[in-house]
Amino acid sequence: MLAYRLHAYASTPPLHLDTLPVPTPTPTQALIHTSHAALNPIDWKIALGHVAEHMPLPFPYTLGVDFVGTITSLGANCPSRLKKGDRVMTLSRALGAFAESLTIESDILAKVPDGLSDADAATLPIPGLSAWQSLHAAGPLEPGMKVLIHGASGVVGALAVQLAKAKGLHVVGTASGKNREFVVGLGADGFVDYTREKFEDVVGMGSVDLVLDYVLVGGAANTTERSWGVLKEGGAIVSLADPTILGKIPEGKRGFFPEIVPDVEGLEKLGRMLRDGEIKAKVAKVYRRGELLEGMEANKAGGTTGRLLVDFRRA
Ligand SMILES: NC(=O)c1ccc[n+]([C@@H]2O[C@H](COP(=O)([O-])OP(=O)(O)OC[C@H]3O[C@@H](n4cnc5c(N)ncnc54)[C@H](OP(=O)(O)O)[C@@H]3O)[C@@H](O)[C@H]2O)c1
């Protein structure tokens, strides 16, 4: 089988397409034939060595965090709810999704609901769980709470806007002006074009209950740092982009950098919501297997609205 592996940090090309034996599942693992893998900022952040301290990897190592695929075999001690031929999805903290096949602990596999395509399902694992878990990370949500979402046009941000609106929150999203209609179309009550306006001027200082930070590169334009000022007393920033936030929490405010974890029930619920049209997730482009590095580069460049996927069944 073919797998995209990291041989060294910050190298050119960033990953090598290597030929490997198909792995054998342990008793608790499933062997998956990958249908679609999704591209995430964490892929190129890992490849550049940006998270090497928190997440050291032995080389060579297959990257790829989330995927949709079909179970081709199951170890003897896997849950009885799973069977050969099931379409499944999850986020893999052990990585390995940029491969034609992978083995993974079966208890984190969510089933793709009937009626949802593999490509549509592949929009969900990391962004859906990231949006859901970060939205709830700072405590209970009350209808009418004011939330400022940085990176509201991104794959995580777009889902967070919709999930926050479904909870009855008042949502203001920041993104570049070309994405205004997209973000407002998702239900945002207000929009700030970060290329032309200061979000502080639009939302007002001391007025926001919760800031969700999904900016492509953490710390860009001091977004996280500047956000403390717009929070009410006791308000919180939940950042997925800037881990340094934890060392900078001012008195009277709260800050979180939550670890996003697999959640079978939550992901299956998001799958049903997507299938039933309760949430929308856009596929921007589906690359062929041989084009994965091109897709990774596009993800790093930013500016794409929607999910970048790789169809591993197409050479
Ligand atoms: N810690 C975790 O487990 C975890 C999980 C998922 C994601 N993340 C992080 O979350 C971030 C978003 O991921 P993603 O997949 O949603 O990326 P994405 O789809 O590329 O979205 C990036 C977003 O950042 C916006 N942006 C860029 N510069 C900005 C600025 N100065 N102010 C406000 N918005 C700005 C972009 O807006 P325009 O395109 O409209 O300019 C876009 O909405 C990344 O940093 C990623 O690493 C972390």
TrEMBL record:
InterPro entries: ADH-like_N (IPR013154), ER (IPR020843), GroES-like_sf (IPR011032), NAD(P)-bd_dom_sf (IPR036291), YIM1/Zinc_Alcohol_DH_Fams (IPR050700). Residues 10-310 form the Enoyl reductase (ER) domain. It comes from the Eukaryota. Transmembrane segments: none annotated. One of its GO terms (molecular function) is oxidoreductase activity. This is Enoyl reductase (ER) domain-containing protein. It comes from Zasmidium cellare ATCC 36951.
